[in-house]
Every structure is written in structure tokens, then in C-alpha cells.
Design goal:
The protein is mainly β. The protein folds into 2 domains: 87 residues, Beta Barrel (Elongation Factor Tu (Ef-tu), domain 3); 57 residues, SH3 type barrels (Roll), CATH 2.30.30.240. Helices cover 8% and strands 42% of the residues. The strands form 2 sheets. A 6-stranded antiparallel beta barrel has the order 1-2-5-4-3-6. A hairpin with a 5-residue loop joins strand 9 and strand 10. Its main location: cytoplasm. This is Ribosome maturation factor RimM. Belongs to the RimM family.
């Protein structure tokens, strides 16, 4: 299965340096000089990292195959992907494709909607849930709110605070 390690962002400078939107939990291990990655779309790769630097929390790289700005600009929004073995997965970690399509339920089993995506955030990710009326709700993907993910039962249990979902009953004192 292919897993996204990073998404290539904007080009910086004239020598082909690009900013990465890092999607791996271990960039210090994966994003190193000499690492080769397949790309999505595939026709732009494979690429080999020739330099890596971090600046103000962002990661910047150059690729041996794209040594100038115009080449680097052509890579924008390209995904760096690797083949992974499913045995390496943590117990409480899921890939977006595993979550999309799951039914979102409250703790009593009432339908809240359907998971349509996973949005990375700076502190934590967000589950995107399409409510029955079509509204998309961003649910913080933290244990206190998303209390259970049951891939086998095709659902996630969301203990949402009042007001998170549009049809939530608001109690006014």
C-alpha cells in the first residue's frame, strides 16, 4: 500500500528548493539526503533528496532530478509516497482511506453522518463528517471526542461537545 510521506509545496530560490508539507511521524528518519521516493503523479518521479534543511519549523529539500526553480515549480502538489507493510501500523493509527466512508455515531448509536476525509492540522488532525443535511463538520480527531474507531464494524464513535454538529440540541439556561 502506498503511503504519503510529504506533499511538495512552493519552490524557494533559484536552485530548486521546495517546501514540504510533511505527513510522516518521523521526518528525521524518512527525509534524509539520498532517500528516493516514488511520486503521485508517477510520471514526475522517482525523486532523490539531495539536501534537507529545516527553518522555523518547516522542512525544505532539493531533489537531484530537479535542480532549478522551474523544475521544482513543476513538482508543486506532488506527493512523495512509499510502499508500506501493514504490519508496521500502530494500534491506534489509521490511514485516511480506512476512515473514509465510516459511519459516524454518537455514544448512544444515533447517526451523526459519514466520514468523508481526514484533514491534517498543526496540533491534531480533523475528521471531516458529512451530516445527513449535507453540512461538513470538522471533528477534532482526539481520544476525548473520537472515542472509538471500529474498522470492522464500519463506524466511529464521536462524543461531541454540544454545538459541534448542526442538529445538536443546545440547552439555554
Amino acid at each position: 500500500m502506498l503511503v504519503t510521506v510529504a506533499i511538495i509545496g512552493s519552490a524557494r530560490g533559484l536552485k530548486g528548493e521546495v517546501k514540504l508539507n510533511v505527513r510522516t511521524d518521523s521526518p528525521e528518519r524518512r527525509l534524509v539526503v539520498g532517500a528516493m521516493y516514488e511520486t503521485d503523479p508517477a510520471e514526475l518521479g522517482p525523486v532523490t533528496i539531495s539536501s534537507v534543511r529545516t527553518y522555523k519549523g518547516s522542512t525544505f529539500v532539493t531533489f537531484a532530478e530537479y535542480a532549478d526553480r522551474s523544475g521544482a515549480e513543476a513538482l508543486r502538489d506532488t506527493k512523495l509516497v512509499i510502499e508500506t507493510d501493514e504490519d508496521d501500523i500502530e494500534d491506534d493509527a489509521w490511514y485516511p482511506h480506512e476512515l473514509i466512508g465510516l459511519e459516524a455515531l454518537d455514544p448512544e448509536g444515533y447517526e451523526l453522518g459519514e466520514v468523508t476525509g481526514l484533514e491534517p492540522g498543526p496540533a491534531h488532525d480533523y475528521l471531516l463528517v458529512r451530516e445527513p443535511d449535507g453540512i461538513i463538520t470538522r471533528v477534532p480527531f482526539v481520544k476525548a471526542i473520537v472515542t472509538e474507531v471500529d474498522i470492522d464494524d464500519n463506524c466511529v464513535i464521536i462524543d461531541a461537545p454540544v454545538g459541534l454538529f448542526s442538529d445538536a440540541d443546545l440547552e439555554i439556561d
